[in-house]
Amino acid sequence: MLRKLLRFLTGRLFISLVLIVVQLATLFLVLFYVQNNAVWFQILSGLSIVMTLVVVVRDLNPAYKIGWMLLFMFFPVYGGIFYILFGNRRLNRRLRDRLEQLNVVYQKGVEGGSYSDLLPMRALASYSNTLSRQAQYIVNITGYPVWSNTEVEYFPSGEAWVIDLLEELAKAKSFIFLEFFIVAEGEVWDAVLAVLLDRIRRGVRVCLMFDDAGSLFTLDSHFDTRLRALGIEVVAFNPLRAHLNSRLNSRNHCKVVVIDGNIGYTGGVNLADEYANRLLRFGHWKDTAVKLKGDAVWSLSQMFLQLWAFSTGRSENFAAHRPTITAHTDGFVQPFSDNPLDDNNVAENAYIQIISMAKRYVWITTPYLILDNEMITALKIAAQSGVDVRIITPHIPDKKYVFAVTRSYYRVLLDAGVKIYEYTPGFLHAKMFVSDDRVAIIGTINMDYRSFYLHFENGVLFYGSSVVRKVYDDIEDTLAICRPIDTEFLRTRKWYSRLVGIILRLAAPLL
After folding, report:
1. Is residue 465 over pLDDT 80?
2. Which pick of 25, 149, 237, 434 has the fewest CB atoms within 10 Å?
3. Which residues are marked as active site?
4. Residue 250, SS3?
5. Average pLDDT, rounded, for the chain
6. Euclidean distance between CA atoms 269 and 20, whole angstroms
7. What pTM was estimated for this model as a whole?
8. CB 327 within 8 A of CB 263
9. What domains can be seen in the chain, in order of their start residue?
10. Dihedrals φ, ψ of 391, to 5°?
11. Is 418 strand, coil or helix?
Protein backbone atom coordinates (compact mmCIF):
# COMPACT_ATOMS: atom_id res chain seq x y z
CA MET A 1 0.00 0.00 0.00
CA LEU A 2 2.80 2.42 0.92
CA ARG A 3 4.65 1.61 -2.28
CA LYS A 4 1.53 2.35 -4.37
CA LEU A 5 1.03 5.63 -2.51
CA LEU A 6 4.62 6.70 -3.11
CA ARG A 7 4.35 5.68 -6.75
CA PHE A 8 1.23 7.82 -7.14
CA LEU A 9 2.72 10.83 -5.33
CA THR A 10 5.81 10.76 -7.54
CA GLY A 11 3.98 9.96 -10.77
CA ARG A 12 3.25 12.38 -13.60
CA LEU A 13 -0.49 12.39 -12.92
CA PHE A 14 -0.20 13.72 -9.39
CA ILE A 15 2.59 16.16 -10.22
CA SER A 16 0.78 17.47 -13.31
CA LEU A 17 -2.49 17.93 -11.44
CA VAL A 18 -0.76 19.74 -8.59
CA LEU A 19 1.00 22.11 -10.98
CA ILE A 20 -2.22 22.79 -12.91
CA VAL A 21 -4.10 23.49 -9.66
CA VAL A 22 -1.32 25.87 -8.59
CA GLN A 23 -1.55 27.69 -11.92
CA LEU A 24 -5.33 27.98 -11.65
CA ALA A 25 -5.09 29.26 -8.09
CA THR A 26 -2.46 31.79 -9.12
CA LEU A 27 -4.56 32.94 -12.05
CA PHE A 28 -7.62 33.51 -9.88
CA LEU A 29 -5.57 35.31 -7.22
CA VAL A 30 -4.08 37.63 -9.82
CA LEU A 31 -7.47 38.30 -11.40
CA PHE A 32 -9.02 38.92 -7.99
CA TYR A 33 -6.26 41.40 -7.21
CA VAL A 34 -6.34 43.30 -10.49
CA GLN A 35 -10.12 43.65 -10.54
CA ASN A 36 -9.77 46.10 -7.66
CA ASN A 37 -7.46 48.19 -9.79
CA ALA A 38 -9.50 50.56 -11.94
CA VAL A 39 -7.10 50.51 -14.88
CA TRP A 40 -6.80 46.72 -14.99
CA PHE A 41 -10.55 46.37 -14.48
CA GLN A 42 -11.13 48.42 -17.62
CA ILE A 43 -8.48 46.50 -19.57
CA LEU A 44 -9.94 43.09 -18.65
CA SER A 45 -13.49 44.28 -19.31
CA GLY A 46 -12.41 45.63 -22.69
CA LEU A 47 -10.71 42.32 -23.46
CA SER A 48 -13.93 40.47 -22.71
CA ILE A 49 -15.83 42.77 -25.08
CA VAL A 50 -13.28 42.14 -27.83
CA MET A 51 -13.43 38.38 -27.29
CA THR A 52 -17.22 38.55 -27.38
CA LEU A 53 -17.04 40.11 -30.83
CA VAL A 54 -14.48 37.48 -31.90
CA VAL A 55 -16.85 34.69 -30.87
CA VAL A 56 -19.77 36.35 -32.68
CA VAL A 57 -17.96 36.71 -36.01
CA ARG A 58 -16.15 33.35 -35.99
CA ASP A 59 -17.66 30.46 -37.93
CA LEU A 60 -18.59 28.41 -34.86
CA ASN A 61 -21.46 26.18 -33.85
CA PRO A 62 -24.28 28.31 -32.34
CA ALA A 63 -24.36 26.19 -29.16
CA TYR A 64 -20.63 26.81 -28.70
CA LYS A 65 -21.20 30.55 -29.11
CA ILE A 66 -24.07 30.54 -26.62
CA GLY A 67 -21.90 28.80 -24.05
CA TRP A 68 -19.22 31.45 -24.29
CA MET A 69 -21.78 34.26 -24.29
CA LEU A 70 -23.15 32.93 -21.00
CA LEU A 71 -19.63 32.84 -19.59
CA PHE A 72 -19.00 36.42 -20.70
CA MET A 73 -22.31 37.43 -19.12
CA PHE A 74 -21.66 35.81 -15.74
CA PHE A 75 -17.94 36.68 -15.68
CA PRO A 76 -17.68 39.96 -17.60
CA VAL A 77 -14.19 40.70 -16.24
CA TYR A 78 -12.63 37.24 -16.54
CA GLY A 79 -14.39 35.93 -19.64
CA GLY A 80 -11.85 37.30 -22.12
CA ILE A 81 -8.92 35.67 -20.32
CA PHE A 82 -10.77 32.36 -20.12
CA TYR A 83 -11.44 32.43 -23.87
CA ILE A 84 -7.80 33.17 -24.73
CA LEU A 85 -6.64 30.29 -22.52
CA PHE A 86 -9.28 27.68 -23.35
CA GLY A 87 -11.40 28.86 -26.29
CA ASN A 88 -8.97 28.39 -29.17
CA ARG A 89 -9.30 24.89 -30.65
CA ARG A 90 -6.61 25.36 -33.29
CA LEU A 91 -3.02 24.20 -33.07
CA ASN A 92 -0.24 26.68 -33.61
CA ARG A 93 0.87 27.41 -37.17
CA ARG A 94 3.90 25.08 -37.06
CA LEU A 95 1.85 22.05 -36.04
CA ARG A 96 -0.95 22.87 -38.48
CA ASP A 97 1.58 23.11 -41.31
CA ARG A 98 3.04 19.72 -40.35
CA LEU A 99 -0.40 18.09 -40.44
CA GLU A 100 -1.15 19.68 -43.81
CA GLN A 101 2.15 18.38 -45.21
CA LEU A 102 1.21 14.87 -44.13
CA ASN A 103 -2.13 15.23 -45.91
CA VAL A 104 -0.25 16.16 -49.08
CA VAL A 105 1.99 13.10 -48.70
CA TYR A 106 -1.09 10.91 -48.33
CA GLN A 107 -2.79 12.39 -51.39
CA LYS A 108 0.30 11.80 -53.51
CA GLY A 109 0.44 8.23 -52.24
CA VAL A 110 -3.16 7.58 -53.32
CA GLU A 111 -2.81 9.25 -56.71
CA GLY A 112 0.43 7.49 -57.50
CA GLY A 113 -0.64 4.09 -56.25
CA SER A 114 -1.68 0.94 -58.03
CA TYR A 115 -5.28 1.20 -56.86
CA SER A 116 -8.01 3.11 -58.62
CA ASP A 117 -10.53 4.89 -56.40
CA LEU A 118 -12.67 5.76 -59.44
CA LEU A 119 -14.01 2.32 -60.30
CA PRO A 120 -15.61 1.60 -56.88
CA MET A 121 -17.12 5.10 -56.85
CA ARG A 122 -18.64 4.58 -60.29
CA ALA A 123 -20.00 1.21 -59.23
CA LEU A 124 -21.46 2.78 -56.08
CA ALA A 125 -23.16 5.46 -58.18
CA SER A 126 -24.79 2.68 -60.21
CA TYR A 127 -25.92 0.99 -57.00
CA SER A 128 -27.28 4.18 -55.41
CA ASN A 129 -26.91 7.75 -56.58
CA THR A 130 -27.82 9.12 -53.13
CA LEU A 131 -25.23 6.98 -51.36
CA SER A 132 -22.59 7.97 -53.89
CA ARG A 133 -23.24 11.62 -52.99
CA GLN A 134 -22.54 10.85 -49.36
CA ALA A 135 -19.38 9.00 -50.35
CA GLN A 136 -18.29 11.89 -52.57
CA TYR A 137 -18.64 14.30 -49.65
CA ILE A 138 -16.20 12.17 -47.63
CA VAL A 139 -13.80 12.02 -50.58
CA ASN A 140 -13.93 15.77 -51.19
CA ILE A 141 -13.32 16.72 -47.56
CA THR A 142 -11.00 13.99 -46.28
CA GLY A 143 -9.52 12.44 -49.40
CA TYR A 144 -10.44 8.91 -48.29
CA PRO A 145 -11.93 6.96 -51.22
CA VAL A 146 -14.51 4.21 -51.58
CA TRP A 147 -13.08 0.71 -51.87
CA SER A 148 -14.26 -2.62 -53.18
CA ASN A 149 -12.10 -5.80 -53.07
CA THR A 150 -12.53 -5.82 -49.29
CA GLU A 151 -13.84 -8.58 -47.04
CA VAL A 152 -15.63 -7.43 -43.89
CA GLU A 153 -16.49 -9.03 -40.56
CA TYR A 154 -18.66 -7.63 -37.79
CA PHE A 155 -18.14 -8.25 -34.07
CA PRO A 156 -21.20 -7.66 -31.86
CA SER A 157 -19.11 -7.70 -28.65
CA GLY A 158 -15.70 -6.80 -27.35
CA GLU A 159 -15.20 -10.42 -26.29
CA ALA A 160 -15.47 -11.70 -29.88
CA TRP A 161 -13.21 -8.90 -31.12
CA VAL A 162 -10.40 -9.71 -28.65
CA ILE A 163 -10.38 -13.40 -29.61
CA ASP A 164 -10.11 -12.62 -33.33
CA LEU A 165 -7.54 -9.85 -32.76
CA LEU A 166 -5.20 -12.17 -30.86
CA GLU A 167 -5.45 -14.79 -33.62
CA GLU A 168 -4.58 -12.29 -36.35
CA LEU A 169 -1.80 -10.59 -34.39
CA ALA A 170 -0.10 -13.97 -33.99
CA LYS A 171 0.10 -14.25 -37.81
CA ALA A 172 1.81 -10.88 -38.38
CA LYS A 173 4.92 -11.04 -40.57
CA SER A 174 5.93 -7.44 -41.25
CA PHE A 175 4.35 -4.78 -39.04
CA ILE A 176 1.61 -4.12 -36.49
CA PHE A 177 0.05 -0.69 -35.89
CA LEU A 178 -2.08 -0.14 -32.78
CA GLU A 179 -3.85 3.12 -31.95
CA PHE A 180 -6.21 3.50 -28.98
CA PHE A 181 -7.71 6.21 -26.82
CA ILE A 182 -7.34 4.03 -23.71
CA VAL A 183 -4.80 1.34 -22.91
CA ALA A 184 -5.12 -0.28 -19.48
CA GLU A 185 -2.98 -2.98 -17.95
CA GLY A 186 -4.98 -6.14 -17.23
CA GLU A 187 -5.96 -9.45 -18.80
CA VAL A 188 -6.60 -8.07 -22.29
CA TRP A 189 -3.38 -6.06 -22.40
CA ASP A 190 -1.33 -8.96 -21.00
CA ALA A 191 -2.64 -11.27 -23.72
CA VAL A 192 -1.98 -8.71 -26.46
CA LEU A 193 1.50 -7.91 -25.12
CA ALA A 194 2.49 -11.58 -25.07
CA VAL A 195 1.65 -11.89 -28.76
CA LEU A 196 3.41 -8.63 -29.62
CA LEU A 197 6.62 -9.72 -27.92
CA ASP A 198 6.53 -13.01 -29.80
CA ARG A 199 6.16 -11.15 -33.10
CA ILE A 200 9.01 -8.77 -32.23
CA ARG A 201 11.30 -11.73 -31.69
CA ARG A 202 10.42 -12.77 -35.25
CA GLY A 203 11.36 -9.39 -36.70
CA VAL A 204 7.91 -7.74 -36.83
CA ARG A 205 7.79 -3.98 -36.29
CA VAL A 206 5.26 -3.01 -33.59
CA CYS A 207 4.04 0.59 -33.17
CA LEU A 208 1.66 1.61 -30.38
CA MET A 209 0.02 5.03 -30.07
CA PHE A 210 -2.26 5.84 -27.14
CA ASP A 211 -3.88 9.06 -26.02
CA ASP A 212 -2.05 10.47 -23.03
CA ALA A 213 -5.12 11.99 -21.38
CA GLY A 214 -7.35 9.03 -22.22
CA SER A 215 -4.89 6.65 -20.53
CA LEU A 216 -4.01 9.02 -17.71
CA PHE A 217 -5.72 6.97 -15.00
CA THR A 218 -4.93 3.53 -16.46
CA LEU A 219 -1.16 3.67 -17.13
CA ASP A 220 1.74 4.70 -14.94
CA SER A 221 4.33 7.25 -16.01
CA HIS A 222 6.92 4.60 -16.93
CA PHE A 223 4.68 2.52 -19.22
CA ASP A 224 6.16 3.79 -22.49
CA THR A 225 9.73 3.45 -21.19
CA ARG A 226 9.16 -0.19 -20.28
CA LEU A 227 7.67 -0.97 -23.70
CA ARG A 228 10.54 0.66 -25.56
CA ALA A 229 12.94 -1.52 -23.61
CA LEU A 230 10.98 -4.51 -24.95
CA GLY A 231 11.34 -3.36 -28.55
CA ILE A 232 7.94 -1.70 -29.07
CA GLU A 233 7.82 1.75 -30.64
CA VAL A 234 5.51 3.88 -28.46
CA VAL A 235 3.98 7.34 -28.74
CA ALA A 236 1.73 9.09 -26.23
CA PHE A 237 -0.45 11.37 -28.35
CA ASN A 238 -0.57 15.04 -27.30
CA PRO A 239 1.25 14.43 -23.98
CA LEU A 240 -0.21 16.00 -20.87
CA ARG A 241 1.72 19.14 -20.02
CA ALA A 242 1.66 20.72 -16.60
CA HIS A 243 0.45 24.07 -17.90
CA LEU A 244 -2.90 25.51 -18.93
CA ASN A 245 -3.61 25.40 -22.65
CA SER A 246 -6.48 24.61 -25.00
CA ARG A 247 -4.51 21.85 -26.79
CA LEU A 248 -5.42 19.49 -23.95
CA ASN A 249 -8.89 19.30 -25.52
CA SER A 250 -7.62 17.88 -28.83
CA ARG A 251 -7.55 14.20 -27.94
CA ASN A 252 -6.99 11.18 -30.18
CA HIS A 253 -10.16 9.14 -29.76
CA CYS A 254 -9.36 6.83 -32.73
CA LYS A 255 -9.15 3.03 -32.44
CA VAL A 256 -7.20 1.44 -35.27
CA VAL A 257 -5.29 -1.82 -35.64
CA VAL A 258 -3.45 -2.68 -38.87
CA ILE A 259 -1.61 -5.96 -39.46
CA ASP A 260 0.80 -6.16 -42.42
CA GLY A 261 -1.36 -3.65 -44.30
CA ASN A 262 -3.81 -6.45 -45.13
CA ILE A 263 -6.03 -6.67 -42.05
CA GLY A 264 -7.51 -3.75 -40.13
CA TYR A 265 -9.83 -3.27 -37.17
CA THR A 266 -11.78 -0.33 -35.82
CA GLY A 267 -14.83 0.30 -33.65
CA GLY A 268 -15.60 1.39 -30.12
CA VAL A 269 -13.34 -1.06 -28.28
CA ASN A 270 -10.25 0.05 -26.36
CA LEU A 271 -7.47 -2.15 -24.96
CA ALA A 272 -8.95 -2.47 -21.48
CA ASP A 273 -10.65 -5.30 -19.61
CA GLU A 274 -14.10 -3.74 -19.25
CA TYR A 275 -14.51 -3.55 -23.04
CA ALA A 276 -14.35 -7.36 -23.20
CA ASN A 277 -16.26 -7.82 -19.90
CA ARG A 278 -13.19 -9.20 -18.17
CA LEU A 279 -13.90 -6.48 -15.60
CA LEU A 280 -17.46 -5.45 -14.71
CA ARG A 281 -17.62 -1.75 -13.88
CA PHE A 282 -21.04 -0.61 -15.12
CA GLY A 283 -22.90 -3.86 -15.64
CA HIS A 284 -22.51 -5.63 -18.98
CA TRP A 285 -20.43 -3.59 -21.43
CA LYS A 286 -21.93 -3.58 -24.94
CA ASP A 287 -19.48 -2.67 -27.70
CA THR A 288 -18.86 -3.44 -31.37
CA ALA A 289 -16.02 -3.56 -33.89
CA VAL A 290 -15.36 -4.41 -37.53
CA LYS A 291 -12.54 -6.17 -39.36
CA LEU A 292 -11.47 -5.27 -42.89
CA LYS A 293 -9.34 -7.43 -45.14
CA GLY A 294 -8.04 -6.13 -48.45
CA ASP A 295 -7.89 -2.78 -50.25
CA ALA A 296 -9.79 -0.63 -47.70
CA VAL A 297 -7.18 -1.38 -45.04
CA TRP A 298 -4.93 1.03 -46.92
CA SER A 299 -7.04 3.94 -45.61
CA LEU A 300 -6.67 2.73 -42.00
CA SER A 301 -2.91 2.55 -42.51
CA GLN A 302 -2.88 6.13 -43.75
CA MET A 303 -4.87 7.33 -40.73
CA PHE A 304 -2.41 5.74 -38.37
CA LEU A 305 0.72 6.84 -40.23
CA GLN A 306 -0.41 10.47 -40.48
CA LEU A 307 -0.93 10.85 -36.72
CA TRP A 308 2.15 8.72 -36.00
CA ALA A 309 4.36 10.95 -38.17
CA PHE A 310 2.62 14.02 -36.75
CA SER A 311 3.37 12.89 -33.19
CA THR A 312 6.92 11.63 -33.70
CA GLY A 313 8.10 14.25 -36.20
CA ARG A 314 9.66 11.44 -38.24
CA SER A 315 8.83 10.77 -41.88
CA GLU A 316 7.38 7.42 -42.89
CA ASN A 317 7.34 5.60 -46.22
CA PHE A 318 3.58 5.48 -46.65
CA ALA A 319 3.68 3.44 -49.86
CA ALA A 320 5.56 0.61 -48.11
CA HIS A 321 2.45 -0.23 -46.09
CA ARG A 322 -0.01 -0.97 -48.88
CA PRO A 323 -2.09 -4.17 -48.90
CA THR A 324 -0.43 -7.10 -50.61
CA ILE A 325 -3.41 -9.45 -50.93
CA THR A 326 -6.55 -9.63 -53.02
CA ALA A 327 -9.83 -10.00 -51.14
CA HIS A 328 -13.39 -10.70 -52.24
CA THR A 329 -15.71 -7.73 -52.49
CA ASP A 330 -18.44 -7.36 -49.87
CA GLY A 331 -20.26 -4.19 -50.87
CA PHE A 332 -18.47 -0.83 -50.78
CA VAL A 333 -16.29 0.23 -47.87
CA GLN A 334 -15.15 3.77 -47.02
CA PRO A 335 -12.98 4.28 -43.93
CA PHE A 336 -12.65 7.95 -43.01
CA SER A 337 -11.24 10.16 -40.29
CA ASP A 338 -12.17 13.51 -38.78
CA ASN A 339 -9.89 15.97 -37.04
CA PRO A 340 -10.70 19.02 -34.92
CA LEU A 341 -8.17 21.31 -36.57
CA ASP A 342 -10.18 22.31 -39.63
CA ASP A 343 -13.62 23.82 -40.14
CA ASN A 344 -15.29 20.63 -41.38
CA ASN A 345 -17.40 18.54 -39.01
CA VAL A 346 -17.06 15.46 -41.18
CA ALA A 347 -18.30 12.92 -38.62
CA GLU A 348 -21.42 14.85 -37.65
CA ASN A 349 -22.21 15.66 -41.27
CA ALA A 350 -21.88 11.99 -42.25
CA TYR A 351 -24.43 11.14 -39.57
CA ILE A 352 -26.76 13.94 -40.65
CA GLN A 353 -26.58 12.82 -44.28
CA ILE A 354 -27.72 9.32 -43.33
CA ILE A 355 -30.59 10.74 -41.28
CA SER A 356 -31.63 13.15 -44.03
CA MET A 357 -31.56 10.53 -46.81
CA ALA A 358 -33.43 7.85 -44.84
CA LYS A 359 -36.74 6.73 -46.29
CA ARG A 360 -37.78 3.92 -43.93
CA TYR A 361 -35.65 3.82 -40.79
CA VAL A 362 -32.53 5.07 -38.98
CA TRP A 363 -31.37 3.13 -35.93
CA ILE A 364 -28.63 4.56 -33.74
CA THR A 365 -26.64 3.46 -30.70
CA THR A 366 -24.49 5.92 -28.76
CA PRO A 367 -23.13 6.11 -25.21
CA TYR A 368 -23.64 9.88 -25.06
CA LEU A 369 -26.41 12.00 -26.57
CA ILE A 370 -25.37 15.66 -26.43
CA LEU A 371 -26.69 17.30 -29.57
CA ASP A 372 -26.40 20.63 -31.34
CA ASN A 373 -29.27 22.30 -33.17
CA GLU A 374 -28.34 20.83 -36.56
CA MET A 375 -28.50 17.24 -35.28
CA ILE A 376 -31.71 17.81 -33.33
CA THR A 377 -33.34 19.34 -36.41
CA ALA A 378 -32.26 16.43 -38.65
CA LEU A 379 -33.60 13.83 -36.20
CA LYS A 380 -36.90 15.68 -35.72
CA ILE A 381 -37.52 16.19 -39.43
CA ALA A 382 -36.83 12.52 -40.16
CA ALA A 383 -39.18 11.31 -37.42
CA GLN A 384 -41.89 13.81 -38.36
CA SER A 385 -41.61 12.63 -41.98
CA GLY A 386 -42.51 9.09 -40.97
CA VAL A 387 -39.01 7.63 -40.75
CA ASP A 388 -38.60 5.10 -37.92
CA VAL A 389 -35.89 6.83 -35.85
CA ARG A 390 -34.65 4.85 -32.84
CA ILE A 391 -31.81 5.74 -30.48
CA ILE A 392 -30.34 3.46 -27.81
CA THR A 393 -28.34 4.93 -24.92
CA PRO A 394 -27.00 3.30 -21.74
CA HIS A 395 -29.14 2.72 -18.68
CA ILE A 396 -26.10 2.48 -16.40
CA PRO A 397 -23.80 5.44 -17.12
CA ASP A 398 -20.03 5.62 -16.86
CA LYS A 399 -20.21 9.37 -16.20
CA LYS A 400 -23.27 10.52 -14.26
CA TYR A 401 -22.97 14.18 -15.24
CA VAL A 402 -22.90 13.24 -18.95
CA PHE A 403 -25.86 10.93 -18.39
CA ALA A 404 -27.83 13.82 -16.91
CA VAL A 405 -27.16 15.88 -20.04
CA THR A 406 -28.07 12.93 -22.30
CA ARG A 407 -31.48 12.59 -20.64
CA SER A 408 -32.11 16.31 -20.97
CA TYR A 409 -32.51 15.79 -24.73
CA TYR A 410 -35.10 13.03 -24.46
CA ARG A 411 -38.23 15.18 -24.34
CA VAL A 412 -37.59 17.27 -27.45
CA LEU A 413 -36.86 14.11 -29.42
CA LEU A 414 -39.80 12.12 -28.03
CA ASP A 415 -42.18 14.98 -28.81
CA ALA A 416 -41.06 14.80 -32.45
CA GLY A 417 -41.64 11.05 -32.65
CA VAL A 418 -38.10 9.76 -32.11
CA LYS A 419 -38.10 6.48 -30.15
CA ILE A 420 -35.56 6.27 -27.33
CA TYR A 421 -34.40 3.20 -25.44
CA GLU A 422 -31.93 2.56 -22.61
CA TYR A 423 -29.75 -0.55 -22.54
CA THR A 424 -30.74 -2.11 -19.20
CA PRO A 425 -27.98 -4.75 -18.72
CA GLY A 426 -25.35 -2.05 -18.28
CA PHE A 427 -23.29 0.42 -20.29
CA LEU A 428 -23.65 0.67 -24.06
CA HIS A 429 -20.46 2.03 -25.64
CA ALA A 430 -21.13 1.05 -29.28
CA LYS A 431 -21.36 3.84 -31.86
CA MET A 432 -23.52 2.62 -34.76
CA PHE A 433 -25.78 4.00 -37.47
CA VAL A 434 -27.82 1.84 -39.83
CA SER A 435 -30.45 2.91 -42.33
CA ASP A 436 -32.78 1.40 -44.95
CA ASP A 437 -30.81 -1.89 -45.24
CA ARG A 438 -28.27 -0.05 -47.42
CA VAL A 439 -25.83 1.96 -45.30
CA ALA A 440 -24.18 1.72 -41.90
CA ILE A 441 -21.39 3.40 -39.95
CA ILE A 442 -19.23 1.71 -37.33
CA GLY A 443 -16.53 3.69 -35.59
CA THR A 444 -15.40 5.75 -32.65
CA ILE A 445 -17.73 8.73 -33.03
CA ASN A 446 -20.05 9.53 -30.14
CA MET A 447 -23.03 11.83 -30.62
CA ASP A 448 -21.58 14.62 -28.50
CA TYR A 449 -19.62 17.83 -28.82
CA ARG A 450 -16.26 16.25 -27.98
CA SER A 451 -16.47 13.76 -30.84
CA PHE A 452 -17.94 16.24 -33.32
CA TYR A 453 -15.70 19.23 -32.53
CA LEU A 454 -12.72 18.40 -30.28
CA HIS A 455 -11.46 14.85 -30.91
CA PHE A 456 -9.60 13.06 -33.67
CA GLU A 457 -12.09 10.35 -34.70
CA ASN A 458 -12.48 7.62 -37.29
CA GLY A 459 -15.21 5.43 -38.72
CA VAL A 460 -16.14 3.18 -41.63
CA LEU A 461 -19.09 3.64 -43.97
CA PHE A 462 -20.54 0.44 -45.41
CA TYR A 463 -22.71 0.66 -48.52
CA GLY A 464 -24.62 -2.45 -49.59
CA SER A 465 -22.38 -4.64 -47.44
CA SER A 466 -23.28 -7.69 -45.33
CA VAL A 467 -22.26 -5.59 -42.33
CA VAL A 468 -25.37 -3.44 -42.82
CA ARG A 469 -27.69 -6.37 -42.13
CA LYS A 470 -25.57 -7.62 -39.26
CA VAL A 471 -25.70 -4.22 -37.57
CA TYR A 472 -29.48 -4.14 -38.04
CA ASP A 473 -29.85 -7.62 -36.53
CA ASP A 474 -27.59 -6.75 -33.60
CA ILE A 475 -29.52 -3.58 -32.79
CA GLU A 476 -32.80 -5.49 -33.11
CA ASP A 477 -31.53 -8.07 -30.60
CA THR A 478 -30.32 -5.27 -28.32
CA LEU A 479 -33.70 -3.53 -28.40
CA ALA A 480 -35.25 -6.66 -26.88
CA ILE A 481 -33.31 -6.05 -23.65
CA CYS A 482 -33.78 -2.28 -23.56
CA ARG A 483 -36.24 -0.11 -21.67
CA PRO A 484 -38.42 2.14 -23.86
CA ILE A 485 -38.43 5.74 -22.69
CA ASP A 486 -41.75 7.59 -22.69
CA THR A 487 -43.13 10.88 -21.43
CA GLU A 488 -44.36 9.22 -18.23
CA PHE A 489 -40.79 8.24 -17.40
CA LEU A 490 -39.66 11.82 -17.94
CA ARG A 491 -42.50 13.19 -15.81
CA THR A 492 -41.56 11.02 -12.83
CA ARG A 493 -37.88 11.99 -12.83
CA LYS A 494 -36.70 13.99 -9.81
CA TRP A 495 -36.87 17.74 -10.35
CA TYR A 496 -33.27 18.23 -9.27
CA SER A 497 -32.07 15.64 -11.81
CA ARG A 498 -33.80 17.56 -14.56
CA LEU A 499 -32.34 20.85 -13.31
CA VAL A 500 -28.80 19.46 -13.21
CA GLY A 501 -29.19 18.19 -16.75
CA ILE A 502 -30.38 21.56 -18.02
CA ILE A 503 -27.54 23.45 -16.32
CA LEU A 504 -24.88 21.05 -17.56
CA ARG A 505 -26.42 21.12 -21.02
CA LEU A 506 -25.69 24.85 -21.29
CA ALA A 507 -22.06 24.22 -20.43
CA ALA A 508 -21.69 21.05 -22.58
CA PRO A 509 -20.19 22.80 -25.67
CA LEU A 510 -17.36 24.21 -23.53
CA LEU A 511 -16.42 21.00 -21.71
Report:
1. yes
2. 25
3. 253, 255, 260, 429, 431, 436
4. coil
5. 86
6. 30
7. 0.88
8. no
9. 2-86 (no CATH), 93-126+151-330 (3.30.870.10), 346-510 (3.30.870.10)
10. -130, 130
11. coil
